[in-house]
Amino acid sequence: MTIKDVAAKAGVSVATVSRVMNASGTVNPETEKLVQSVIDELEYSPNGIASSLKTDRTHIIGYVVTDIRNTVFTFLMAAIQNVLWEYNYSMMLFSTNGDPDKEASILRFISMQKIDGAILNSCTNTQSIIQLNKKIPVVLTGNDISDPNFIGDFVDSDNHAASYMLTSNLLSNGHRKIGIINGPNNLVVSRERFRGYQDAMAVLGMTINIDNPLVYEGSFDVSSGYLAAKKMLSSASMRPTALLVTNNEMMKGVLKYCSEQQIKIPDDLSVVTIGNRHELDYLYISPTYMETNLEEMGERLARLILERIETKKRLPKRIFKLPAFFHDGNTVKPLTPIEANTIIS
Amino acid sequence: MTIKDVAAKAGVSVATVSRVMNASGTVNPETEKLVQSVIDELEYSPNGIASSLKTDRTHIIGYVVTDIRNTVFTFLMAAIQNVLWEYNYSMMLFSTNGDPDKEASILRFISMQKIDGAILNSCTNTQSIIQLNKKIPVVLTGNDISDPNFIGDFVDSDNHAASYMLTSNLLSNGHRKIGIINGPNNLVVSRERFRGYQDAMAVLGMTINIDNPLVYEGSFDVSSGYLAAKKMLSSASMRPTALLVTNNEMMKGVLKYCSEQQIKIPDDLSVVTIGNRHELDYLYISPTYMETNLEEMGERLARLILERIETKKRLPKRIFKLPAFFHDGNTVKPLTPIEANTIIS
DNA sequence: TTGTACGCGTTATCAT
DNA sequence: ATGATAACGCGTACAA
User: Which residues form the signal peptide (chains A, B) (predicted)?
Assistant: First the structure.
């Protein structure tokens, strides 16, 4: 069932059928009606592949993440999908599993599949990204690359502000021994969240470097949150009075450990986190957290990539930091002056 | 950078280059080496679109779900992806958001995109599925369709057995007033889970129909679990002593409600569920549950669709019910004979 | 307004 | 072993 069949049956040329299908060029209303009826009758649908070969457009964008099971990615993905669907684009999904080699081959694969554009979430292979970006528009989130050869956009929430604010909140509640359970340091998102924490601590004169025992580098997944908690909380006397856990997933792991070890929140430990409202509002506890608006981020990412695809211009790089919002919960215990003093000493 | 450029630079014909790229036909080792070097030098990568047009193969499979944010789908997706990647296939992802119209247009879209095959998760539009299946191989999960015109496979865990076993467990612990929070009745997965519960209750002479107040039809997501709990548990005197919650997501909603209302598990309420180990083992509580092995299911789905694609035969329909495994937790309180009697009366 | 014909980048058939 | 060439199904410049 091709365009030829339709043309033959309608007694017109393939050009006319094509014009009717794409509403392009001029076509007599009567012939249009005729052609349309044949199209309906034969249930003709054009071959997208052939059309792509001709127009050099697939109407597909690629979304690359490190692990599909991470809810941050899935919520982002859902938001992206909504926009894409609206504009008649569809999504091809790839997961690197955190493997740099796999990431490289995925990016290579994307460039030969003639996908129209790509959204890369937490990709780290700078050279591969630049290589891909030479052929198609690319926007980034989670990790940015500073190489001037990269001409694309970067979108993320204001991670520095988010952890700065949460850390300040803990400090103003009297906490001083504040730990951070963070993501991989090779991602901008992690480094920003660490810096926010670091800067807030510095205000009270505390200098915390990356090798401080209060700092844990996890991998943004549930099990690393669990392991981090195990490491940092096992000794009741040494442990921090508060923890900044920098994403949803690791937060679940921390809560699991606390529950197993009968560590009461907030009585024995205060906890704050950064994440997604839809996840955090359904925990058994109401955490104090900074909300990253994943709907907005996903929508922004999708609109940016579509803009770059449609206006074929190589627009200069743009960077967006979306605001995060404070949610007050009941996971922070204000320390009395005595407690605070004890701990400071 | 096309195959022509490579041919020209290597001083051979496009046919030879094609043979080298695809390791097809015969080619002199020396010319092969030469051609390969030119390919490397020019960093030539073939145009997948053109190749698809010729071979009628895209090496893409479509995965359709109702809501990407549901972890059941994401875990399944991850498993499917692993297999696809191994066989050099990639995945296009679609989300119906539970909208029948959107489902129909997605399935239509898939058939014109010349995707090689489709995995449909909880799709309900029988006619659209059959229509799609006329053109490409299709395998189903979550919801099956009984129409003989559908020639594909169905894979799911043994849902009847899972809820039968959990209900029996509650019964043998003395519970009688057992509620079920279930998914949409238009899905086979929900109906099977309900039947398992129903059959187990029937063993003790209790006939429970779908309109019984002990039965709640939710939508397999967190908020419907929350709402269900709210409805079923609000009156302390009337409420069931135990609940069978038929998936992960709704379980989170139930736990949230219980936590808010200070309903202690298992003291005030026993709870059992069906779901994914990776999720359930990281709750703050250790639930008694039946594990559905999503890795195995996903892998099976992927292999089945690939099999149907590669052996172009229209194999007869096959149905797979994968076993679920019992995990004993601490969310079921054994009722003393007195308590049990009180409740029965 | 409509039709003819070429080309998109491959693969595959058939000669050589 | 290799090369010339015809498809694959569509869009579109150009001609009519």
Answer: none
Q: Do the Cβ atoms of B67 and B95 come closer than 8 Å?
A: yes
Residues A282 and B331: their CA atoms lie apart, in Å, by 19
Flag whether residue B58 sits within 8 Å of chain A, measured between CB atoms: yes
Decide: CB of B83 under 7 A of nucleic strand C: no
pTM of the model: 0.94
Parse chain A into domains and list their residue ranges. 3-46, 56-157+294-322, 159-292+326-344
Q: Which residues touch strand D (CB under 7 A)?
A: A 2-4, 14-15, 18-19, 21-22, 24, 46-47, 50-51, 53-55; B 11-16, 19, 25-28, 30-32, 50, 53-54
> B112 vs A45: CB contact, 8 Å cut-off?
yes
Structural class in CATH, domain A56-157+294-322: alpha beta
Quick check: B212 contacting A, CB < 8 Å?
A: no
Question: Using the beta-carbon criterion (under 8 Å), do B94 and A93 form an inter-chain contact?
Answer: no
Give me the pLDDT at residue B339, please: 63
B7-10 long-range contacts, CB within 8 A, separation 24+: B9/B38, B9/B41, B9/B42, B10/B34, B10/B35, B10/B38
What confidence tens digit (pLDDT) does each residue in B134-155 have?
Answer: 999 999 999 999 999 999 999 9
Q: Tokens for A276?
A: 């997604």
In the predicted structure, residue B285 carries a pLDDT above the cut 60: yes
pLDDT number for residue A236: 83
| Nearest nt (C1') from A47 Cα | D9
User: Which class is domain B3-46?
Assistant: mainly alpha
Which structure tokens are listed for A290?
Answer: 């900074």
Look-up: residue for tokens 């967190």?
B222
* Chain A 45-84 residues whose Cβ is under 7 Å from strand C: 50, 53-54
Q: What is the CA radius of gyration of chain A?
A: 26
Q: List pLDDT tens digits, range A309-325.
A: 998 888 999 999 999 99
Task: Characterize the bridge pairing of strands B90-95 and A90-95.
Answer: antiparallel
The nt closest to A54 (CA vs C1′) is C8
Domain A56-157+294-322 shares a fold with domain A159-292+326-344: yes
pLDDT tens across B13-40, in order? 999 999 999 998 899 999 999 999 999 9
According to the model, what pLDDT value does residue A112 have? 81
Find out whether A75 and A298 touch, Cβ atoms under 8 Å.
yes
CATH number of A159-292+326-344: 3.40.50.2300
Residue A59's nearest CA partner among A22, A84, A96, A28 is: A84
